[in-house]
Write a structure and sequence with these properties.
CATH topology of the largest domain in chain B: Heat Shock Protein 90
CATH class of the largest domain in chain B: Alpha Beta
CATH superfamily of the largest domain in chain A: Response regulator
Strand order of the largest sheet of chain A: 2-1-3-4-5
Number of domains of chain A: 2
Radius of gyration of chain A: 22 Å
Strand content of chain A: 25-35%
Shape of chain A: elongated
Structural class of chain A: alpha/beta
Strand order of the largest sheet of chain B: 2-4-5-7-6
Helix content of chain B: 55-70%
Helix content of chain A: 25-40%
Number of domains of chain B: 2
Largest sheet of chain B: 5 strands, mixed
Number of helices of chain B: 11
Mean pLDDT of chain A: 86
Distance between the termini of chain B: 37 Å
Order of helices and strands of chain B: HHHHHHHHEHEEHEEHEE
Number of strands of chain A: 15
Oligomer: heterodimer
Structural class of chain B: alpha+beta
Number of helices of chain A: 8
Number of strands of chain B: 7
CATH topology of the largest domain in chain A: Rossmann fold
Mean pLDDT of chain B: 84
Shape of chain B: rod-shaped
Strand content of chain B: 5-15%
Largest sheet of chain A: 5 strands, parallel
CATH architecture of the largest domain in chain A: 3-Layer(aba) Sandwich
CATH superfamily of the largest domain in chain B: Histidine kinase-like ATPase, C-terminal domain
Radius of gyration of chain B: 38 Å
Order of helices and strands of chain A: EHEHEHEHEHHEEEEEHEEEEEH
CATH class of the largest domain in chain A: Alpha Beta
Chain lengths: 253, 353
Amino acid sequence: MNIIKTIIVEDEKPARDLIRTYLEGFSKLELIGEYDNGFDGLKAINELKPDAIFLDVQMPKLTGFELLEVLDHLPEVIFTTAYDQYAIHAFEQNAVDYLLKPFSKERFGEAIGKLELRIESHVESKNTETGIDRIRQHLADRDEKLHRVVIKKSGKIHVISTGDINFLEAQDDYVMIYTDEGKYLKQQTMKYFENHLDPQQFVRVHRSYIANITCIERIEPYEKTNFILILKDGNKVPVSRNGMQVLKENLDF
Amino acid sequence: MSHPITGNRRSVLIYSIVWLITSALQGFMYWYFLHFPLPVVITDALFSNLLFGFMGLLAWYPTRYIPFHRQSPLYSILAHVVAGLMVLSIWVLLTMGILDILFSNQSDYIEFLDGSLAWRAILGGLIYLVLVLIYYLVSNNQKLQERAQQEERLKNLVRDTELNMLKSQINPHFLFNSLNSIASLTMSNPDEARDMIIRLSDFLRYSLKHRENEFVPLNEEMGRMKDYLAIEKIRFGEKLQYVFNINGECEDFPVPTMIFQPLFENAIRHSVYESVAPVTIRFDCNSDNGFMKAVVSNDYDPQMPTKKGTGVGLQNVMQRIELSYQDKGSVQWRSDDGVFAVTIIFPPIFTKR
């Protein structure tokens, strides 16, 4: 069996030290990089294409989850986390393993055993599915509210605060996100944004549009029965009859 | 409290139907037994009943605003008698006066009408009494429901407060991450690991002692906060810097236990967590005319979109300062130029609640 190349993405030095020390006991695994934040980790994973990553959830710049969202190369994932009741469910089903800090060398060994098994079975069955897609799905199903959105645009990673979003527009399997700085395409559903953006601020005004109500300049009638939003940035957003109903409730008029 | 009848559409409908049926019954009797002509019968029945129906609605207001006093039932009864007599006399005078004018040419009927004064008044009085009794029942019922709702609200409030208190205690993230750091140190630096276990124990013991109204000298509080920051520093290394600048006069100043912990925790969560560059957390403390002014501040990257905190930590500190000093102390925060600072003013003399 080939050597398994791994990367550690973890912001705390002692935690990295611990994993590195534990890894020394496993000859099949080779550590090819250590990164202390999500941005550097993301870049390295896409460049070095490791077979597996040890991934912390809470990190500066980009969390472990956000990193998974925008990754091109999909390695196996072993999560390391202190305490996250939402995430554990997702880990249990789809990640190779999740290690709750602090973890023992024996527990770490179990995870490595599972990792070797999973990689071996993938090689034999030529099955490239890594479970990451399903982890992504699980993350999308969580009912936690979004406070920022991570987007890849021409090779660069943009982290956009949800408050900076003016409106969103459906485009087939993608959603176009409009901000004062420009527009960004994100592979995601309107339903997802409708469920995960703060409903006090974002309203689904149309089948294809979600508007940030703090960005509305005025509402004008449009054709016979419809309305259209004029946003502060000058953009126009159509409003469906249902959307008008929801707007009325939200803006109280 | 809304009117039990006009308050909702269904009771208005039922009330109107009851009065229409009464009108129909009265009309039928006048026509069948007394053989008055139909226009007279219909006008009398509709006019007297509907007017009474309308005035009966007004009977709610004396019921609502003359509460039944257990101590002086005579007063309430008297008030109702007066109100009732007013309603009745207006009703009797209006109906009889107008019917008299309308049908002055029907001498049979006028004679009957003039003779009906007594029983109209008695019947009206009885119906009025029944209405008042019904209103009392409804109003009592509403009061009971309102009280139950109020109790429910109070219960929720108490539960929320307790929940916030729990939340303000040691964050499990902190505990597990610290233990993980210590586990790592046991291999690389066993001496430091031992030192950290002792600091963690001291801090945890102190936090268990934490009661809403307990006071300790500032020195002791800051000693434990240094433990807390030292433990976090193993995790974050150079990223976390802290500077304490405490005026010697302040060292014995009594402060509520763990009052600064949420502020340091916030500083770490909102700046150190999100930063890759070193972050400095400052604690400055000075005394002025017997008051003590303490400032916890940290720098942060204003460009970085971060999790909006729930504000539980800061709210908790504000609540506790208010509980401890009423309006004599104060908590203020400001955020500008990449610096977030919370200032607490402690008054010279404080009274424990």
